[in-house]
Design brief:
Layout (H helix, E strand, L loop, with lengths): L1 E6 L2 H8 L9 E4 L6 E4 L1 H5 L12 H6 L3 E3 L3 H15 L6 E5 L2 E5 L8 H16 L3 E6 L2 H13 L1 H4 L2 E3 L3 H10 L10 H9 L5 H5 L3 H20 L15 E12 L2 H21 L2 E12 L10 E12 L2 H15 L6 E9 L2 E2 L14 H16 L38
Parallel strand pairs: 2-4, 7-8
Antiparallel strand pairs: 1-6, 1-7, 2-3, 5-6, 9-12, 10-11, 10-12, 10-13
Helix pairs in contact: 4-5, 12-13
The protein binds a DNA duplex through helix 9, helix 11, strand 9 and strand 12.
Amino acid sequence: MFALIDCNNFYVSCERVFNPKLNNKPVVVLSNNDGCAISRSNEAKALGIPMGAPAFKYEKVFRKNNVEVFSSNFPLYGDMSSRVMNILSKFTPNIEVYSIDEAFLKFDGFENYDLQSYCEEIKKTVEKWTGIPISIGVAPTKALSKVANRISKKFPNQTKGVYLINSEERKIKALKWLKIKDVWGIGFKHTERLKNIKINTAYNFINLEDNWVRKNMSVLGVRLKKELEGNSVLDLEEVRSPKKAIATTRSFEGTITDYEKIKERISTFAICCAEKLRSQNSNCNSIYVFVRSNKFQKNKTQYRNGIVMTIPFSTNSNMVVSKYAVEGLKKIFKKGIDYKKAGTIVMGLDSSENHQLNLFENENPKHKYLMKTIDYIQKKEGQSKIKLASQDLKKRWKMKQEKLSPNYTCKVNDIIKVK
DNA sequence: TCTGGGGTCCTATGCCTT
DNA sequence: TCTGAAGGCATAGGACCC
């Protein structure tokens, strides 16, 4: 049996742990740049604030209903997440951390356990030790445990936050209840396609022919169908496979048309990627650069383009990565466009130790030592003390984070004081 | 004025080699 | 040398996830 553990309204719950005044009040946490709502308390949901609600459009709603609004504080959420995961791993050796607020557990050899009460115990422990409320769904497959989890969350009074799909009747009932758009793995496009042929629930979906599913939804659709039928085809992924790409992308506060200004951003994004590479001891051998206009301003000229720049050797040097990124930008930059978003993604990662030397072209060996020194100084003196000439020395643009909570668990000065 | 960021996997396509 | 089939690989784009 699989269990899906999901933290309820995770970011909001994290804020509440350290600020109990927020309990029973509408609370929302905004995305990076304070752009849109990405976590809402039940009270905020009840006010009709949808997931992804643009903050500027909902300002009146926030004010009128005294909604507590926070910028996202990822260091805090990451730390709370690892505390929760730590506790969960005490209950079974088989755990897959699926995302910052979700984990799959596998109960192998638990035949003699009463899983209902065991899960109630898990829930109680996590809430007591961290203050984070969770929901648990248990079922014979991962996809069904997602469904069970949804039920536990939707009907907290009846389920007490734990629901098991452990019989054929419960499975059928759950699948008939679950709307197609809420099925794990079925997004907007597939929902439209399925609705067109009168598939409105998960139960309708499992009654489709395999051929149709294969043709229209690829092998992923077929896998999903099997899982919902109760045949487990997705196993736990306990070891995190190494990352295949590292991205740094941002939307701008306004729009930018000037080449030099975009170049400065791209250079900084590339350097940020290089720093992330070094912090996990890897190199890249190519970098993707993209720019795009504002897709919401339909009356303006739309333009989006990107390019992969191959680097002839493996590197994590600020200078090299930045140089290729800017060369890429030169190729895709078009004059007269109001750019809204840009980014760089480094690809073809390998670890620093075993990277291959190129027969003809290699990195200047001095870079390695220079980067070490830079990282050392940054760590000691704070970020952004050292810049390349391609970056703007005076200007300091940064994310909008007007409503940031303290880093209660990660910064000494922000630790709560008990008087 | 103001709509996130960071990932994954799959498929179609074109090119090259055997 | 030409031709067609088949596999490997890189690339672009679509769809999905949290």
